[in-house]
Design brief:
- The complex is a heterodimer of chains A (296) and B (523).
- With 296 residues, chain A is of the alpha+beta class.
- Helix content of chain A is 70%, strand content 9%.
- Chain A is built from nine helices and four strands, in the order ααβαββαβααααα.
- Chain A has a four-stranded antiparallel sheet with strand order 2-3-1-4.
- With 523 residues, chain B is an alpha+beta fold.
- Helices cover 54% and strands 20% of the residues of chain B.
- Chain B contains 15 helices and 19 strands.
- In chain B, the strands form five sheets. In chain B, strands 9, 10, 11, 12, 15 and 16 form a six-stranded antiparallel sheet that branches. A four-stranded antiparallel sheet of chain B has the order 7-8-2-18.
- In chain B, a hairpin with a 2-residue loop joins strand 15 and strand 16.
- Chain B is elongated.
- The chains are: A alpha+beta (296), B alpha+beta (523).
- Strand 4 of chain A pairs antiparallel with strand 18 of chain B, so a sheet runs across the interface.
């Protein structure tokens, strides 16, 4: 045994838990950059035939009193494609979408010839829809976690169930924190990535727990030793799986379009966290929960 | 061994069925005629985020729809009470959607209450010579459902007449309609949104006065506000008209585009029987006067009536052909019983959709090839088994996706990526286990047996835990979360099967001996 997992686990556990608390605090304070799917607002992808500067577009919209506009290059700079975002403040609950869009088009027409650009995508989302999406999303994650808790409790035991939920929570919060650190926008694809990370994390934790369960049955060592043996026995599988996942994600990151890039980045980070928590976090929580009890 | 034999037949059957199910997805246009008699023709569709198109969420305006309901019920109650020869002082609806009936005496109040209480949809409360009527929750939801269904039918009628194929209109929850129209070009999308979102409430009202300023008109008729209505016209003019409208859009039977002598398009319409008689009476009474044709609260035109008109009429105005055509479509399919508003609109240009599909496809292909090579490099013979199992798994997954006619979206693809990741992981779990047994000194065949047997519980538990969460997400989440959950659930089912059953059969028949694997000597 080259590495004594248990010796360091307590310190790692404390550091991880502090990180989770800090992340929660920071997320609460600075929040995430929610895309318009959640906040409501308007998003346009405009593609120009000729080279156009961001400042020109901004000035054009400023003239028409659209002040809170954000403009980004969409994709490669040479594409002359821009992502324009207008926040929800400019919209009422029952705004006339048709009229609103006509206004935006008029603004563009004022500066650019109508044949010189095309609108590749328009998203308009009322504030109400976004709120519902968030609410349903939260419901499904909460109930999904409860279902996992119930299943693991049924198949393993309560301490395993609680520990895997803690690990899930750990990965979820830290992934969200990294997303906010890297200023990645929360869009549908980043939500998909977060869900995938949660799925991966649970899978990873269960694989190790399954080995613990098996060893508890067959070995008469202390729980500490069993956890250590189980982690080491599954270590080669853990490493191989991480390698294969990275083999998939790295091409996605480098070759995929704008949305896929964010997706892959979140996944890469999340998979790292998921692997980490299933080795260092979940087993230790399970150990603490069982410490009081006699090991049978 | 008996179990393996069973597994073999079962795998073969599943593979065959999957191939049959997946066929329509790739050969949708070349399905032979007899196919439908024996096999499902469902296929996997690409979501709008992948192929481009319009996605619109329409919602009832809560307040307006409640108003519509209470106004309608108030009219019913009034008729009912008058029918029973009860003296009614007044009946009004207020902003809280309560209907308030007031009476001169207690007797009429009590007999009215008896009449009202017969209707189980009403909740009545008695005040000082007044009865306040509200509605039960079930009645309100049922009525709204009914209205929403009507709206849905009218909308699909309108979209069909516009000539779009493969559009989908669904009710979502109790007050939403989701309209999805794939692959539409830029010039058509504004028109179709226009067609969808118009209430198309058409009214005919005699004009009392036309003027250039709304304020002046309103000032003039201030004393009789409740007898007149005021409207904006199309070229900076305003109208004062009679308040009540005798003829509404429901009476229109057909509408089409015609051209006047200057080749300008206009919309001509014909009326049904009851509409005709009302219209002829209205025009007879107003010869020499103007009649305003009001569409969604705006005067479209106000022609002078030359003579009595019977079954048909026309709406002119500076239309382009497209505008006239769209108006005819809207009038023909009827007005919406309640106004709706666009809550969400997503338009994805087809080029953007296909860009992301191309990008995604290429990177996925590359990733798949790398995984295939890695598995063979690392596990040799077993790697080949793993790769075949992955192909088998993919065929099964797409077979099931086709069978259920799933629409594949970006989050859906994410679900597939996770599934395939877990499938590879499952194989790794098994092979590492086999390796452990080999290291312990067991021979190849029994190592394989033990490796599979011992991995079954791991694979089932790991996949099931995720599957259960996915099923939760499917029922509770919507939009992206649902799309993710569908492919993930289907994928996990197939993965469990291909890892535990198919890979085992393949290993049994392909692998008779095992050369030392990578990593075997290092541990």
């Amino acid at each position: 045994m080259k590495f004594d997992f248990f010796k360091n686990m307590k310190a790692i556990f404390i550091i991880s838990s502090l990180l989770v608390v800090f992340s929660l605090y920071s997320l609460n304070k600075s929040g995430l950059d929610y895309g318009i799917e959640f906040m409501g607002g308007t998003e346009l992808v405009v593609s120009f035939n000729e080279e156009v500067k961001v400042e020109d577009i901004r000035e054009d919209f400023l003239k028409a009193n659209y002040e809170n506009l954000t403009i980004q290059n969409y994709g490669k700079k040479s594409n002359n494609e821009f992502l324009l975002r207008l926040p929800v403040e400019d919209l009422d609950e029952d705004v006339d979408v048709q009229k609103y869009k006509k206004n935006l088009k008029n603004v563009l027409d004022a500066e650019f010839t109508p044949d010189g650009y095309s609108v590749k995508r328009i998203d308009f989302i009322g504030p109400k829809v976004g709120k519902e999406l968030v609410r349903n999303g939260v419901y499904s994650i909460v109930f999904g976690s409860l279902a996992i808790l119930a299943y693991v409790f049924f198949r393993f035991s309560l301490s395993f169930a609680v520990a895997s939920i803690f690990a899930l929570f750990h990965d979820f919060i830290l992934t969200a924190f990294l997303i906010s650190l890297l200023n990645i926008e929360i869009t549908l694809s980043s939500i998909a990535a977060i869900l995938t990370v949660i799925g991966y994390s649970v899978n990873d934790t269960i694989v190790i727990f399954d080995r613990v369960r098996e060893n508890v049955k067959n070995l008469s060592s202390s729980l500490e030793d069993i956890i250590q043996i189980s982690i080491i026995q599954t270590l080669s599988r853990t490493i191989l799986t991480v390698i294969t996942v990275l083999i998939v994600l790295i091409p996605l990151y480098f070759l995929g379009g704008v949305e896929i890039k964010d997706f892959a980045l979140i996944m890469i980070l999340g998979v790292g966290l998921g692997t980490y928590s299933s080795i260092f976090y979940a087993p230790y929580i399970m150990y603490i929960l069982n410490k009081g009890k006699k090991n049978d | 061994m008996n179990k393996i034999k069973l597994y073999r037949y079962f795998s073969f059957l599943v593979l065959l069925l999957s191939l049959v199910f997946v066929y329509p997805t790739f050969q949708a246009n070349n399905l032979p005629g007899w196919w439908n008699y024996f096999f499902p023709a469902n296929k996997v569709n690409l979501g709008l985020d992948l192929r481009g198109g319009i996605f619109v969420v329409l919602g009832l305006n809560k307040k307006v729809s409640s108003n519509v309901i209470s106004d309608k019920e108030a009219a019913k109650i009034k008729a009912e009470i008058l029918n029973n020869k009860i003296l009614l002082r007044d009946i009004i609806t207020n902003d809280n959607n309560e209907i308030i009936l007031s009476f001169y005496d207690i007797d009429s109040l009590e007999s009215s209450k008896k009449v009202l209480d017969k209707n189980t949809n009403y909740v009545t409360a008695i005040g000082d010579k007044t009865i306040v009527v509200t509605f039960t929750e079930t009645f309100l939801t049922q009525t709204k459902d009914k209205l929403l269904k009507q709206v849905k039918n009218i909308l699909s009628n309108r979209i069909d007449q516009f000539g779009v194929i493969e559009s989908s209109i669904q009710l979502s929850g109790s007050e939403r309609i989701i309209v999805q129209i794939p692959g539409i070009n830029e010039s058509d999308r504004e028109r179709i949104l226009n067609i969808i979102s118009k209430t198309a409430m058409l009214e005919f009202k005699p004009v009392v006065e036309e003027g250039e300023s709304l304020a002046v008109l309103m000032q003039k008729y201030q004393d009789q506000r409740n007898k007149f209505s005021f409207y904006e016209g199309t070229d900076n003019n305003y109208f004062a008209t009679v308040k009540s409208s005798k003829l509404k859009g429901e009476s229109i039977e057909d509408a089409s585009v015609s051209y006047d002598e200057f080749n300008r398009p206009y919309v001509s319409f014909s009326l049904n029987k009851s509409g005709s008689s009302v219209f002829s009476k209205l025009t007879k009474e107003n010869i020499g006067n103007k009649i305003a044709i009001i569409l969604d609260g705006k005067v479209k035109s106000a022609p002078v009536v030359q003579s009595q008109i019977f079954g048909s009429g026309s709406i002119s105005g500076n239309f382009t052909f497209e505008e006239a055509n769209d108006l005819a479509i809207i009038l023909k399919s009827g007005s919406l019983p309640i106004p709706i508003s666009i809550l969400q609109e997503k338009t994805i240009g087809p080029s953007l959709g296909s860009d992301s599909v191309e990008n995604g496809k290429n990177s996925m292909m590359l990733a798949a090839i790398l995984i295939f090579i890695f598995m063979i490099y690392y596990y040799r013979k077993l790697g080949i088994v793993c790769d075949l199992a992955l192909v088998f798994n993919l065929v099964c997954i797409f077979g099931l996706l086709s069978l259920f006619g799933v629409t594949l979206t970006f989050p859906g693809i994410a679900g597939l990526v996770l599934t395939l990741g877990m499938a590879v992981d499952g194989n790794i779990i098994i092979y590492e286990r086999i390796k452990e047994e080999l290291i312990k000194g067991k021979d190849a065949l029994s190592s394989i047996e033990l490796g599979f047997d011992r991995s079954v519980s791991t694979i089932i538990d790991a996949n099931f835990t995720t599957l259960i969460a996915a099923i939760c997400m499917f029922f509770l989440g919507d939009g992206p979360i649902k799309g993710f959950a569908v492919t993930l659930s289907i994928g996990l089912f197939s993965t469990i099967f291909s890892n535990i059953v198919f890979a085992r059969v393949l290993t049994k028949y392909l692998v008779k001996s095992l050369p030392p694997m990578r990593g075997q000597n290092e541990v």
